[in-house]
Design brief:
By secondary structure, the protein is of the alpha+beta class. The protein has four domains: 3-116, Tumour Suppressor Smad4 (Sandwich); 133-245, Phosphorylase Kinase, domain 1 (2-Layer Sandwich); 252-317, Orthogonal Bundle (Transferase(Phosphotransferase), domain 1), CATH 1.10.510.10; 326-468, Rossmann fold. The chain has helices at residues 85-89, 138-151, 206-220, 252-258, 265-284, 311-317, 331-335, 344-361, 371-378, 383-393, 404-415, 420-432, 442-449, and strands spanning 3-9, 15-20, 24-29, 36-37, 49-54, 57-62, 69-71, 74-76, 96-97, 103-106, 109-116, 167-175, 179-186, 193-199, 230-236, 239-245, 297-300, 303-306, 326-329, 366-370, 398-400, 436-438, 461-463, 466-468. α11 crosses α12.
Length: 470
């Protein structure tokens, strides 16, 4: 098993060792919410640095600390003289790839880094060198499926699976950060199926890949009328395919959007009960979904079915999704916690935004900021609201300044029907290559669903509240 081992030596002579064996983050600072809290060292900032591990790899990024973070004696990050913590935090500091034996110095504390690979475990390379699907056409992805299927052959003495060989792959149904889903039909006739292709975005050990495959084989054994069935699967190196039951009614999120954002209770109730029956059956077998949401509740012949049972979570847990995702929250999102909470929708959106920001502070998600956001936020008259939002943005790890290229891109998107500031937000998010841009602005989302998003370079898929890039 590969490991990232951190041995922390404090000024008082105490030593603490942390061992990371899965994709994880490690936040150091003076605040109690840090994984390693160093309250007695005045040279350590509230949130000093974030270390991200994808064993046996690790990287470090300073969070705008007062004194910087030193790796092998070289200063990495640290805000400029005279900058406030908030000003320092919004600046982008480069990540430092750590090597075995590196020594990190923060104030009076030192951290020795050990990177250990599993014995005789050669890393399986990422399926895509850049871990980015945006450069591949749908045709290229279809060819990948055929190539993986040709490599997926069982050991001698067992019959070869015929399902994937019998499929005709048609158009793309959807695309995400690590893969795409296609509609396919059997050549011999029968119901259409969905083929999901997942591409690793990081090097991984054979052990991690085998673990992911074993977990998915167990989950594939879940059989219930309200759970999407797995029909076949296979892999080659860091590329995986899954053949699943196709649901022709889309997701609850699709239905809600088609109805203007909501589903009447009398329509929703039967589907909700069916979804709960599927979850109950899974719980009885010892499985927890961990990612239930409208997008993962599909409809087939007016019956609700739970999808993506452990697929995304186990993919990330195995270290195949690479380092953490980066998101861009527009001004509407950032304002939600300060809006009138008497409306149920505002309350739900506020809860979602705060949950996202909590994951940002824990290092599970990276937050992006831009000159456009700063311009809008600094125009807010209410000082409490303005300072609160600036505090949120102080956790940002990436910052996009307003360049002539961003302005020109904003003009192009404005011509497509987006408001000027919305267009600049989208242009900034594109330039930062974020995984997703989130908004609670109905008009912005509606424009995207009306087809105006075809002018976006990164082919975002739209859902209620956001654009998924890549």
């Amino acid at each position: 098993m590969s490991k990232v081992i951190l041995q922390v030596s404090s000024a008082d002579g105490t030593t603490k060792t942390s061992e990371l064996t899965e994709h994880d983050t490690f936040l150091l600072g003076r605040m109690e919410d840090c994984h390693l809290c160093v309250p007695g060292d005045p040279q350590v900032s509230r949130h000093h640095f974030l270390l991200e591990a994808c064993p046996p790899m690790a990287s470090l990024r300073d969070l705008g600390s007062l004194n910087g973070t030193h790796v092998n004696g070289k200063k990495c990050g640290g805000r400029e003289k005279g900058e406030t913590p908030e000003q320092g935090a919004i600046r982008q500091y480069p990540s430092v790839d750590l090597k075995n034996g590196d020594r990190i110095t923060v104030g009076k504390s030192t951290i020795e880094v050990r990177l250990e690979s599993a014995p005789d475990a050669a890393a399986v390379p990422a399926a895509l060198q850049q871990g980015d699907l945006s450069g591949l056409s749908p045709e290229a992805l279809r060819q990948l499926i055929v190539a993986v299927a040709s490599c997926h052959r069982p050991s001698a003495g067992r019959p070869a699976p015929s399902l994937i060989d019998d499929l005709i792959i048609h158009h793309e149904l959807g695309r995400g950060g690590c893969g795409a889903v296609y509609l396919a039909t059997p050549k011999s006739g029968g119901d259409p199926v969905a083929v999901k292709l997942m591409l690793s975005r990081a090097q991984a050990e054979p052990r991690a890949i085998d673990q992911f495959k074993r977990e998915m084989q167990v989950i594939a054994g879940l059989k219930h009328p309200n759970i999407v069935s797995f029909l076949d699967s296979g892999s080659d190196q860091g590329t995986f395919f899954f053949v699943m039951e196709y649901c022709d009614g889309g997701s609850l999120a699709d239905v809600a959007m088609a109805r203007g954002g909501t589903i009447p209770p009398d329509v929703l109730m039967p589907w909700a009960i069916q979804a709960l029956e599927g979850l109950a059956a899974a719980h009885k077998e010892g499985f927890v979904h961990r990612d239930i949401k409208p997008q993962n509740i599909l409809l087939h012949r007016n019956r609700a079915k739970i999808s993506d049972f452990g697929l995304a979570k186990n993919f990330q847990k195995a270290g195949l999704s690479g380092m953490s995702m980066i998101i861009y929250l527009d001004t509407c999102c950032l304002n939600r916690p300060y809006d009138d909470q008497s409306q149920s929708r505002i309350q739900m959106e506020t809860g979602a935004v705060l949950a996202i920001l909590q994951r940002v502070t824990m290092g599970e998600i990276q937050l992006a900021d831009s000159s456009v956001l700063q311009f809008e936020v600094h125009r807010i008259a209410d000082q409490t609201r303005r300072n609160g939002i600036l505090h949120f943005l102080s956790y940002a790890s990436a910052f996009q300044i307003l360049t002539p290229a961003i302005e020109q891109r904003g003009v192009e998107l404005n011509r497509l029907g987006f408001k000027r500031l919305d267009a600049l937000h989208l242009a900034a998010a594109e330039a930062l290559k974020v995984d997703a841009m989130l908004s609670t602005d109905d008009q912005l989302i509606r424009r995207a669903f009306q087809g105006l998003s075809k002018g976006l370079r990164q082919r975002p898929s739209c859902s209620r509240g956001g654009f998924r890039f890549g």
